[in-house]
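[Structure tokenization] protein backbone as discrete codes
[Encoding] learned vocabulary of local backbone shapes
[Protein] chain in single-letter code, fold in tokens
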Amino acid sequence: MWTGPARATESLAWKLAAVLDGAAGPALLASYHAERHPVGWFSARQSLTGPTVAFLRSEDNESGLPPEEEQPMFNLLVGYQYRSTAVVTDDPVPADPDAVLLVEELCGQPGTRTPHAWVRRGGERVSTLDLLGSGFTLLTGNAGAGWLAAAASASATLGVAINVHRIGTDADVIDPEGRWGSLTGLSPDGVLLIRPDDFVGWRANKLPASPGNELRQALSAVLSR
């Protein structure tokens, strides 16, 4: 059973591992360009702002980026959103596939990094990011017990390990102030499917009639199966 590279944080690493281990189809590798090229171009453009411009040796004043194009550091570091076959969403396809998609905050949108919230597990204060393992992870709420069986079924069918954590006032991960639900907008039985690189691959705002089938389909799409 494939579990993925330990704590893979780079988009290509987990995809290569999944394809080489036979857990994913070769088409998954094509999603690397679709995801990283817009972000790379955006980062290169944003490097022409702020203190770095002063180090550019130029005889003109056109080396900097126009002020209206400058973005906050949040967007440069984490506030971008992937669009590819490895992200399952009903959002419309961007008109320009090379244009970076930016978000104002991380709320569990498919294609964005997993949002952070302080919670308690085993009596210790941890971040929701600490709940993520080296493979796929499901994060659900108090009423998300149905995702446990769904994950077991999808894992057995696809040969992919899936960790599940319930976050709430009466769950294995305690969130006494309900911060997670407020942050993500998920109902107590909704779920986020987190990829091995800590990006959201799919979300269900509430428990569907057949969570096992929905999860298998989403995971198969992410893995180009």
Q: What stands out?
A: Helices lie at 11-20, 31-46, 73-77, 146-158, 179-184, 211-222. The chain has a mean pLDDT of 89. The longest strand covers residues 162-168. The beta strands are 80-81, 101-102, 118-121, 124-127, 136-140, 162-168, 173-174, 191-194, 200-204.
